[in-house]
Sequence to fold (253 residues):
Amino acid sequence: MSPALQPDSSLRTSSIPRQTSIGPTLPKKRNPISVRAAANRRRDFSPQAFLATISEGRKPVGFKSRQNVFAQGELADAVFYIQTGKIKLTVVSKTGKEATIGILGEGDFFGEASLAGQPLRMSSATAITDCALLRIDKNAMMKALHREHEFSDIFVAYLLARNIRYEEDLVDQLFNSSEKRLARILLLLAHFGKEGKPETVVPKISQEMLAEMIGTTRSRVSFFMNRFRKLGFIHYNGGLQVHSSLLNVVLHD
Fold:
């Protein structure tokens, strides 16, 4: 064989070093079936059923309409879960001015700031309908959150949603007119945007309460409520019924 055609021993396969990957290690693809199963378990998880398994530190309590659950300045030592009914949260300034900061209903928690080390209640909670609640001691609630991850996830998601709502309330108060603020609070009270049709708002909700929630006078609330009724956005039928068309007031510039 001609020397020009002889294979170069330096190019033999056995002498070529193996290449080493320097790219990042990609995470393994998650099994879509297991992800879906986890989502289904969380959707089927019932906080109320789980709370019923707490043997110590849990107490069912009932309150009549207008009865105080706790008052601003009292010892914060428990969390409450609403089984049925509506609760109003209010704060009072040093000058005696009262403001309503929220209306809560079935499936909501309140008094949760005690879990973060808040020694005294920063607001008052009052029943605005007959209520059935679960009172859960602070220590019992902490143990429940550590014991059941799905319950912990639901509780954290609830707190984040509440925090977002408070931020939206602040923006609403700073930048929107009182008419838009009233329309927004009525839609929130009617659970607009959640599954199902908007529900009847709290029966006999007073215009004074609405005025406290949006930071205006009762006379202004009365003026706008009459206007909404004439436009067909709301009507009274044993309670205040809110229609999704009221959203036009919020979106209109």
About this structure: The chain has eight helices and ten strands. The chain has a mean pLDDT of 82. The beta strands are 58-63, 68-70, 78-84, 87-92, 98-104, 109-110, 124-127, 131-137, 234-236, 240-242. The first helix runs from residue 32 to 44.
